[in-house]
Design goal:
- The complex is a heterotrimer of chains A (286), B (215) and C (124).
- In chain A, a hairpin with a 4-residue loop joins strand 1 and strand 2.
- Chain A has 2 domains: 212 residues, P-loop containing nucleotide triphosphate hydrolases (Rossmann fold), CATH 3.40.50; 49 residues.
- Chain A contains 11 helices and 14 strands.
- Chain A starts with a strand and ends with a helix.
- With 286 residues, chain A is an alpha/beta fold.
- Chain B has 215 residues and is an all-alpha fold.
- Chain B is built from 10 helices and no strands.
- Chain B has one domain.
- Chain B is globular and about 55 Å long.
- The longest helix of chain B is centred in the middle third of the chain and has 31 residues.
- Chain C has 124 residues and is mainly alpha-helical.
- Chain C folds into 2 domains: 69 residues, Winged helix-like DNA-binding domain superfamily/Winged helix DNA-binding domain (Arc Repressor Mutant, subunit A, Orthogonal Bundle); 44 residues.
- In chain C, a hairpin with a 3-residue loop joins strand 1 and strand 2.
- Chain C starts with 12 loop residues before the first helix and ends with a helix.
- Classes of the chains: A alpha/beta (286), B mainly alpha (215), C mainly alpha (124).
- Chains in contact: A-B, A-C.
- Chains A and C meet through helix 8 of A and helix 2 and helix 3 of C.
């Protein structure tokens, strides 16, 4: 199973923010969720991958080839959905298409028409009059109409209602059924990932906190609830983070057996991805 | 690839392009009709310089309204250098259009098909290439607002042109005779080469600037 | 074939799935030579990651329950007697594990459990 995207040692320095040693790989046939809070570096990383911003150091390989030396060839195989659409709003969708389509050698007008129909979009409508959901659908149409093998999406679901979000996720899974594809999407809405993600990469403050299979994370972490009085300095260390109220504590741990030995009378549940994400972020702050 | 980006430029500012094309016909027409004593190449010069700058800025204004659109296009297989080349090809297209319009106007109004000879045309080309060649890298590097400032100065200086030119002609007859001595063939070659050189250098500088730009 | 995944179980997802597939094979719900669903559609249907199903299929193959043919799919292995014998032990082991899990939650000790087993075994 080859890797669709390999990022190694990516560094980028701004005045108030940096990407530090960002490295991760996307295996083939996987939907990878790139998660993190606002301002954690998701968009910067994606822009660096797409060559929209210069990196200070690091390599980016797509389909095994270096992005810098094979830029055009690789971009031809990448479908891009950036949040807020990134269009010339004064144009109609067809006009915008006429600008983008010629750049891609694999462009298919047939696919374009099919997706426009599927999304009920009128190609002669001005982009400025589209709702947010329709803009995203149009962006997706453009991204899916040139035979792309890798879809890179930056916050595609933010600001969308649950129905549209679920339609988008369905399209993603349909896309993957073709085989040999990959999807990389960044989001801070973790409930979407619960449903479709295979791999999860968490970024915070410009650094990667983890890169794991989603099921592995859900299998190996547990949400533990118990009496605050049972906590001491020693067993606190077994948790990634702990929240306490007057009525008890809630903590996320990946060392369940140790916790079970040291604290009796606990409630154990499977965490959600959001629980795990917050645990790693807050845990890192200590 | 590059041609599609030129098409893009025309598409996003299509209303203004249409208006500009009309102005390029109308203004010299007016000058020729109301002040036929002015040497033929002056309206042409004005037409070219102002036409180029105004049209380019109209397009850049639209781009500035939707700055992320360039990002989407660069995330596609459009190269940064193709973007830059498109702007320079646009320059050539406008210049060609102006030449055609001017020649037609000359034929119609003055009935002097040779009053705009090759040397004059090349001289205008050189002047406009120099102005455009300085303007473009400035716009790429510092953005539309600052570059507009520079162009306003240029247009302002140009508007004062007739007065300055008139005094020039009165005082500097000696230089012209020296110039006239050089054969027109040599003049043409020098002008053409200089234009190509400035054009090329400006394009290279713009490409370098744009390659490093954050989108 | 019925595959039900419990979110409240302590067992890792891939293990739950693997054991239920083995169950189905041993009970004859999945017959020899017949194909298993494709990794992707299976993952989609039970809402698990493709990577997890891939691991399940890999381990099933390693343990001899299935064979896979590249480009065609994964199939239940044919004619494995040794396997069946182990499998029957496996079924008992599974039941025992269930027993032990229940006992632990009720705080029944190993000794009590053994005692209960001795009594019940003699009963038939």
């Amino acid at each position: 199973m080859s890797n669709i995207l390999e990022v190694t040692g990516l560094n980028k320095y701004y005045k108030d923010f940096s990407l530090t040693d960002v490295s991760f790989t996307l295996p083939e046939d996987c939907i990878t969720g790139f998660i993190g809070v606002n301002g954690s570096g998701k968009t910067t990383t994606i822009r660096a991958i797409l060559g929209l911003t210069q990196k200070a150091s690091g390599t980016i390989k797509v389909f095994g080839k270096d992005m810098e030396t094979n830029e055009q060839e690789l971009k031809n195989r990448i479908g891009v959905v950036l949040d807020e659409g990134y269009f010339y709003d004064e144009l109609t969708m067809d006009e915008m298409k006429s600008i983008i389509a010629p750049a891609y050698s694999g462009w298919s007008d047939k696919d374009y028409k099919e997706y426009m129909d599927r999304f009920s979009l009128n190609p002669r409508q001005k982009i400025a009059t589209l709702s947010r959901g329709m803009r995203m659908k149009f962006a997706l149409t453009l991204a899916l109409s040139h035979g792309a093998d890798l879809l890179i999406m930056d916050e595609p679901t933010s600001g969308l209602d649950p129905l549209v979000r679920s339609q988008l996720l369905e399209i993603m899974t349909d896309y993957m059924k073709q085989g040999g594809k990959g999807v990389f999407f960044s989001t801070h809405i973790t409930s979407d990932l619960d449903k479709v993600a295979d791999m999860l990469i968490l970024i915070h403050g410009g650094k990667i906190l983890f890169e794991k299979e989603k099921d592995y994370l859900l299998d190996n972490h547990r949400l533990v609830k118990g009496d605050v009085k049972a906590l001491n300095d020693k067993n606190r260390k077994q948790f990634l983070n702990i929240q306490t109220t007057d009525f008890g504590f809630t903590g996320v741990t990946d060392k369940l057996s140790e916790v079970q030995k040291s604290i009796s009378d606990i409630l154990v549940e499977r965490p959600t991805i959001e629980d795990i994400m917050l645990a790693y972020i807050e845990g890192g702050r200590k | 690839m590059v041609l599609h980006l030129v098409k893009k430029d025309i598409l996003i500012a299509k209303k203004f392009v249409f208006v500009a094309m009309l102005v390029v016909i109308a203004v010299p027409l007016l000058i020729m009709l109301t002040a036929p004593s002015i040497p033929g190449f002056l309206p042409f010069l004005y037409m070219v310089v102002i036409g180029e700058l105004l049209l380019l800025q109209a397009i850049s204004q639209e781009e500035a309204k939707y700055p992320k659109a360039v990002a989407l296009l660069c995330a596609a297989p459009y190269t940064r250098s193709a973007f830059v080349k498109a702007k320079y090809i646009f320059f050539i297209l406008i210049f060609a259009y102006c030449c055609v319009v001017n020649t037609l106007l000359m034929l119609v109004i003055n009935k002097q098909p040779n009053s705009l000879d090759l040397t004059a045309m090349l001289a205008v080309l050189l002047v406009s290439v120099i102005i455009y060649g300085i303007y473009m890298p400035i716009e790429f590097k510092y953005g539309l607002v600052k570059a507009k400032f520079v162009s306003m100065i240029a247009i302002f200086a140009f508007s004062l042109g007739p007065t300055i030119f008139a005094s020039f002609f009165a005082n500097i007859t000696i230089d012209f005779s020296a110039l006239a001595a050089i054969s027109s063939g040599v003049k043409n070659i020098v002008l053409a080469l200089a234009s190509i050189a400035v054009f090329g250098i400006s394009m290279m500088v713009s490409t370098k600037i744009f390659s490093k730009k954050e989108l | 074939m019925k595959i039900l995944i419990s979110n409240s179980s302590d067992k890792p997802l891939y293990q739950q799935i693997k054991e239920q597939i083995i169950d189905a094979i041993l009970k004859g719900e999945l017959t020899e030579g017949n194909p298993l669903p494709s990794i992707r559609s299976f993952a989609n249907d039970i809402k698990v990651s493709v990577l997890t199903i891939r691991r399940v299929y890999d381990e099933l193959e390693q343990e001899g329950f299935t064979t896979s043919q590249v480009g065609i799919g994964t199939f239940v292995s044919t004619g494995n007697v040794e396997l069946l014998r182990d499998s029957k032990r496996h079924m008992v082991e599974q039941k025992m594990q269930e027993l032990i899990d229940t006992a632990k939650t009720l705080n029944i000790t190993k000794e009590e459990l053994n005692a209960m087993m001795d009594i019940l075994y003699e009963e038939d």
